[in-house]
């Protein structure tokens, strides 16, 4: 099977590529990004990777990535400008998050109708009013409050229609916040949800823009997210109605206090001492607009799984860091 991953130089792209290059079922994994993606270190089949630098905003470069499409089995659309980046630069957000996404969808639909497409959407499609007395489900109406969420729901709508018409076999996967991410902080407003662990464990300070330790957020570990992507790569087309392809990916609610407890359990009190809790007024409204409880039942019924312990997520992160040394 041949798989194309866009946004493959990013963290999720790299760990997904590693999983596919360790799996004997995938004969070629095409990695593309605005910079040339590396082949993940230590994979079982590095010879099966093909790395292409491409700007998906340019039709000729999209064509070079997709090729004739005849041997393409699946596409994972993971590229994008993150939340605060898309909000700060309106035109860039739409160009990357919408135009480039639709360019790939259109070309693969034309070259190989019915190809499987996994689209990385986001829980940011939900805005106020979000339920606070029950979990959010796929039946709740998306009403995003940021350009990023608007861009995601636009692409979900295209994916639904293309799938209904038989042009694609699409799955719109609404990701939770992924924590703990290694590397530098991202442009996402939620970046501190990895920074609260990553920076102190590296001996660096971290600002948490909240003083409310009961504030909670819906999260998944990277390990669990990738396992669930592999499940979706094998789902039958009829797993979902052809005009409703969105799935809230499994996650679990974690409070600031639980994050700090996990940090102390792994890094000790000296790590917790590096965390500064200080409200940043200009983002308080956004932080409290996010849904913090989702119904996982649809995703679980499709064979996905969820995390249950943030301490385990932190330990998984530390194991990843150690393995990379």
Automatic annotation (TrEMBL):
Report the Pfam families cross-referenced here.
Answer: Epimerase
What organism does the UniProt record list as the source?
Answer: Sporothrix bragantina
* Domain (NAD-dependent epimerase/dehydratase) ranges: 3-221
Record keywords, A-Z: Carbohydrate metabolism, NADP
Q: Spell out the InterPro entries in the cross-references.
A: Epimerase_deHydtase (IPR001509), NAD(P)-bd_dom_sf (IPR036291)
Q: What is this protein called?
A: NAD-dependent epimerase/dehydratase domain-containing protein
